[in-house]
Every structure is written in C-alpha cells, then in structure tokens.
C-alpha cells in the first residue's frame, strides 16, 4: 500500500448552526474546506486562503474567525455559526434594505462579522465600526452601504442579535 495516497482520517463532532455533525477529516483539513465540502455549507467563500479577505468568516464560540485559518480538529465541541445559521439575523435584512450587496461574494463574511460586531458593541461608534470592517475586503463597493446597514441597527436593542445561534444554549 502506498502511504502517500492514504491520508489518515478521523471522525469528529462539529457543532454547526445549532446541530451536531459528525464528519471524517484529516488533521490538515481546514474548517472552511470541511464546511464547504463535507457539510455542504457553501456560504463561507474560499478566496485568499490566508486570512486577508474575510470572505470565509464564521463565528467560532461567538467570535468572528477566518475559517481558512482554522483546522477542523481545532474547533471540536465549539459552537460554530455560518451565514446559513444567521437566516433570521436582522443584519441580513439590513444589508438588503441598504443595498449593501454588490456581487455578493464577500457578503456572507461581512454579515457574519457585522453580526458579531453588533453583538459585542450594540452601540458602536464610527471608529469601532471602521475597525471591525477592516477585517473584510470588498472590491465592488466603497463600503458606504455596508456602514449604512450596520448603522441602521446600532442601538436597536434587537434581541435576535446574539453571540450564539438560537439553537444553542448560552
């Protein structure tokens, strides 16, 4: 048997969007590839693969993280929320209402990041918003519509913006 062709796999449990999923992964599999290829959750986009663009942003334990930089085996038993887990997030609605969607490739990462921003800083000022938006790149817009979407929710006290997916206990 050729050892180069037989990558060792292990079954792990990932807690994604309020559900526990069992997946077979190699030690080197990124969370991004696991979400997209094994679980069919394609909202997090594969782009730069070095953590610069933010297109692959997900929440890990409530914190925005670039899933291209995390190994799947590193996040076992931690709650993971993808854009698919934020279907009812007011951030998604605000992005639509404020025309913050251009081609849409970066949008899932922005929405996940902005969801975390508003969770951690519900009354964020302009400086905080600017700082948080720096972790995501969009080549289609000047960011004004994205800022407008975030600003429309600041101070709203919308209880559907929270650190974890509604399906997970706090």
Characterization of the model:
This protein is α+β, with helices and mostly antiparallel strands and 170 residues long. It contains five helices and five strands, in the order ββαβββαααα. A five-stranded mixed β-sheet has the order 2-1-5-3-4, sandwiched between helices. Strand 1 (10-16) and strand 2 form a beta hairpin. Helix 2 (90-97) crosses helix 5 (144-151).
* Average pLDDT rating: 89
Counting DSSP H or I runs of 4 or more residues, the number of helices is 5
Question: β content, as a range?
Answer: 5-15%
Total E-strand runs: 5
Gross morphology: globular
Overall structural class, as computed from helix and strand content, comes to alpha+beta
Report the radius of gyration as a whole number of Å. 17 Å
- Major sheet: arrangement of strands: 2-1-5-3-4
Largest sheet: 5 strands, mixed
Order of helices and strands: EEHEEEHHHH
| Portion in helices | 25-40%
Straight-line N-to-C gap? 48 Å
Contiguous low-pLDDT stretches (5 residues minimum) are: 1-6, 164-170
Describe, in short, the structure shown.
With 170 residues, this protein is α+β, with helices and mostly antiparallel strands. It has helices at residues 31-38, 90-97, 107-120, 126-133, 144-151, and strands spanning 10-16, 19-25, 57-60, 63-66, 79-81.
